[in-house]
Specification:
single chain, 9-stranded mixed β-sheet, two-stranded antiparallel ribbon, 11 strands, 35% helix
Length: 295
């Protein structure tokens, strides 16, 4: 589960990185020249309205007449989501107000498919609290024969463990007071119509998340999204709308402190994968620093 911290609410169960980074760089953190990197960190300008989104099993096509205001996308089966994950999404597709699938579930099931995840993150935006939604969600899942266990709960955040057969999914429900930087897209997953966050929305949130925790999957997700053409400069500009404490220089400092080798030992990556990820981290820090430094 991942999420950004907004200025109007505090979220539980997040290990925060102390924000003691300097606001200017000296010595080894001095400003570097802007370059083009092997991991496609070059800035790419593209209009939101013209961007195409691709499903894992085939290209997603915009529907013709009758499309909703979200720009409906019809996609083929849900990428690398498990059967239980798809089942949960189908059961909850009719919940109102509507939620949006984001995070790893959206990447795995719709956009990139570069890894697997046990999580499903459902966001209700422009809400300070979840209200009765967790009870409704649990009742719907149980009525479909699933076992639901409440693992964490606050007014704005619930985590359920949802079990069907031998499989378990971690289902996070999040009330997010701030709006999305990009409207979610409507997609059809195994016959269920749901809202899914765009790659850019997820990218901005991932940058915020990297300030709050050190996990390889977040850095890997950022790399894949950049390789897919996401606009780093735009994302850095928009991130403070999600996290009032966000600063590009602070993010660069936090990334520089990240111990890739330690995290890799836990994550089980190969030596080559570790070196590649460390090189990407260094290039990302350099690019963020260049973008954040005055001309």
């Amino acid at each position: 589960m991942w999420r950004c911290r907004s200025s109007s609410s505090s979220r539980p169960f997040v290990t925060r990185t102390p924000r003691c980074a300097p606001t200017s760089w000296a010595s080894s953190c001095a400003r570097r020249s802007r370059t083009t990197f092997s991991f496609s960190l070059r800035l790419r300008k593209s209009a939101i309205s013209g961007r195409r989104f691709t499903g894992i099993s085939g290209a997603a096509q915009r529907s013709g007449p009758g499309s909703s205001r979200f720009g409906k996308l019809k996609i083929v089966p849900a990428g690398r989501l498990s059967g239980l994950q798809v089942r949960v999404l189908r059961v909850l597709a009719g919940v109102r107000p509507r939620w949006s699938l984001t995070g790893g579930g959206a990447l795995v099931g719709v956009h990139t498919g570069h890894r697997e995840t046990r999580d499903l993150d459902l966001f209700w935006r422009r809400r300070g609290e979840l209200g009765d939604l967790p009870r409704e969600v649990a009742d719907l899942l149980r009525s479909d024969g699933l076992v639901v266990e409440t693992m964490q709960r606050t007014p704005a955040f619930y985590r359920f463990g949802v079990t069907g057969g031998e499989d378990t999914v971690l289902l996070d429900l999040v009330a997010e007071p701030v709006p999305a930087v990009e409207e979610p897209r409507e997609v059809v997953v195994e016959g269920a119509t749901i809202l899914v966050d765009t790659p850019h929305e997820i990218f901005v949130s991932k940058l915020c998340t990297l300030l709050e925790r050190s996990e390889l999957r977040d850095l890997q997700d950022v790399r894949v999204l950049l390789e897919g053409g996401e606009d780093l400069e735009r994302a850095l500009r928009e991130a403070p709308s999600k996290d009032a404490g966000f600063s590009p220089l602070t993010l660069a400092w936090v990334l520089r402190q990240m111990s890739i080798s330690t995290l890799v030992r836990v994550g089980g990556l190969s030596h080559k994968e570790s070196m590649d990820l460390e090189r990407f981290r260094d290039e990302l820090v350099e690019r963020i620093t260049a973008l954040a430094s005055p001309e």
